[in-house]
Amino acid sequence: MQTLTASVTGPNRLRAGLPAGTLLAHKTGSSGTHGGITAATNDIGLITLPDGRKLAIAVLVTDSSADEATREGVIARIARAAYDEATATK
Length: 90
What we know:
Number of domains: 1
Number of strands: 4
Strand content: 35-45%
Low-confidence stretches: none
Distance between the termini: 30 Å
Helix content: 25-40%
Shape: globular
Structural class: alpha+beta
């Protein structure tokens, strides 16, 4: 967990969608781009919510013709939506 929490890879993926200071233990994964298609742009992790609960998340963007910034932006927006849902007062 310490290694995953200390990871600095993928700053524009899950981490970019979370509030500053949110604890994230995660692992990114990527493939090359061939023929204009990127097979994999991924990030999986455990987000520590403000109340101490853990939120498991995996976002896998596959077979995409979008550029890297767009793929990573999708991952960040999904992370934020999951975080907001998990912390919403019901």
